[in-house]
Amino acid sequence: MTAPLLQIRNLHVSVEDTQILKGVDLTVDRGEVHALMGPNGSGKSTLASVLMGHPDYEVTEGQILLNGEDIADLDPTARAVAGMFLAFQYPEEIPGVSVVQFLRQALSNKTGTNYTVLELRLKVMDAMKALGMDASFADRYLNEGFSGGERKRNEVLQMAVLQPDLAIMDETDSGLDIDALKTVAGGVNTLLSPERGFLIITHYQRLLDYVTPDVVHVFMDGRVLTSGGPELAARLESEGYDSFRATV
To answer: pLDDT category, 50, cuts 50, 70, 90?
Structure first.
């Protein structure tokens, strides 16, 4: 039997002796889109950081398995090479480094192949064409002067070029107007694949109006309270999180 793409087992995480994640269990299979929904302070972004190996977080119990392999001892670079990708809530600016230069280095690190600038530019142009992005975007400095929507579209472009097995999107819809939201959602839908899984972390249903999840998880107080289909997101939108707080 093939191992799940991502399997989180009884994950407990602390920062400076303060427990934040309190026994997370979650499985994402290939070809699936999972939405993790919860209020501010519930630990959603902490989970994203822990999955990518942020050194400030201490795993005190449990396992994180990627394609059946325990990745607890891997640093962020090794996890990226293994097939993980994190789209940040607030992508950083890197002045002086163009989008195409950044992607060349990232793809070379991931694959072990030293791509020429021309080879990488062709890959980037193909990806941008598929995503409906203007070609001039490739030569801009990474996130410098980018609007919120442009920063998020750039994250989608990175996914298109790097082709991760597991894409974790940490509140990608944060601060986007409706046009930018539709553009980002369209890019995600373009990248859906039977071999790729998505974990979309969000507060609201609005992104899920354009990207249909297979599974929705309600996340509060550092753990998954309940899981269901897309109808669970609609229930959260209408009732809010109060109806779930009594179960915490």
So the answer is: very high
The mean pLDDT of the chain is 90
Is 240 part of a structural domain of the chain?
yes
Widest distance between CA atoms in the chain: 57
Element (H, E) at 77: helix 76-82
**CA gap 143, 166 in Å, rounded:** 23
**Confidence category of residue 248, pLDDT binned at 50, 70, 90:** low
Beta partners for residue 11, in sequence order: 24
8 Å CB contact between 123 and 111: no
Asked if residue 54 belongs to a domain, the reply is yes
More confident residue, 140 or 1: 140
Q: How many domains does the chain have?
A: 1
Q: Cβ(93)–Cβ(136) under 8 Å?
A: no
Q: Can you give the CATH number for the domain in which 78 is found? A: 3.40.50.300
Containing domain of residue 192, as a range? 6-89+164-245
Running DSSP on this structure, what letter comes out for residue 176? Answer: -
Is the distance from CB of 34 to CB of 201 less than 8 angstroms? Answer: no
